[in-house]
Amino acid sequence: MSLTPEASPPEALAEPTRRVGAGWVGAFSLAWVGMYVGLYGAIQILLPMQTEALAPADKEAALALVLGAGAAFSLVANPLFGALSDRTTSRWGRRVPWIVVGTVGGALSLGVLAAAGTIAVVVVGWCLVQTLLNASYAALSASVPDQVPPDQRGTAAGYVGLALIVGVAVGTGLAVLGGSTAAGYLACAAFMLVATVPYLLLRRDTALDRAHRAPWSWAGFLRGFWIDPRRYPDFGWGWLTRFLINLGNSIALLYLFFYLKDAVGVPDPETGVLIATGVDLAAMLVAVVLTGMWSDRVGRRRVFVLAGGTLMAIASFMIAFWPTWTGVLVAAAVLGLGFGAYTSVDFALLTQVLPSSTDRAKDLGVLNIASSLPQVIAPAVAAPIVTGLGGYPVLYGVAGVVGLAGAVLVYRIKSVP
Asked: What pTM does this model have?
């Protein structure tokens, strides 16, 4: 018996069937580029330079404090803004208002960092950036299950991965070419604002009527952080896989700036990071979009996650045992291929194990904790290793083992091939 109109889900909650076109993909990808510029211009170059200038004797601990505090705020911000957007009944849609809040607020927060003169202000500024940009992150992430049919999500995820490549490249370039940390922050903020405008003008976001809005309570929100893996085992395994792969990657990248300066002996580590990032991004470019499309074509996700995670682990092992500039460049290429394959399919896979259409953004926010929690844990793991428990070889060996474990566990997911 067919469903009556009353029993059918509203358009905002229905599984999308209309394929997205090139205009939507372009504007959506550009919005992601802008957000990544705001994040990675700071993470790759500006925050290490700023913390070294403000606390030269304790630069590792200072950077770990800044990044760890910001990541801790993002743990709550992403699912919180996701849950709020799930319940937003604005005539502009559920996601667009939070993209505006995140982009404008994130740009202003980068301005706080530009003016920071102490480590304490840097901590506050970075926590604001992480909190507000997670409003954009949550809303943009939910736009994929909202608007992209399942058989096109690998391609869409590939373009998100491509946006990461471009965002890291542009953010790193603006940070280096700005001439100072303050100018670098302001340049990243301006780019982020401009890049988001085309997506906002598309107005493709579907509004949710009040009758279908889930009730809000803080108790319910806090309970929503726990999604029972016994009831939703594939969601649980997907979370663990993402957590371990991202933890290995976070440990590996945390001290790259200092590794190039102190272990490899690169005389200009800022330029070294820029070159290594360029090699990494070029390799990612080869893998990211083609892998997503390939995954859609063959209808398989897990094998690409396994392959990508394994290559990322191999890159960490190479850095551990080949501490030369040549070794860094080769490892950067391998990491780029692995991360490109992984990131272009992981997101598509996870959109297919979400428990409920009414809480897409919140559930994606819980999954995104598996990306941000490693940024909190990585400094606690990495700092003692670098300063006294074996140094950089042990650090990168640990990163490789952790990431490889995550890659293997993807095959515990059964509902997605």
From this structure: 0.78
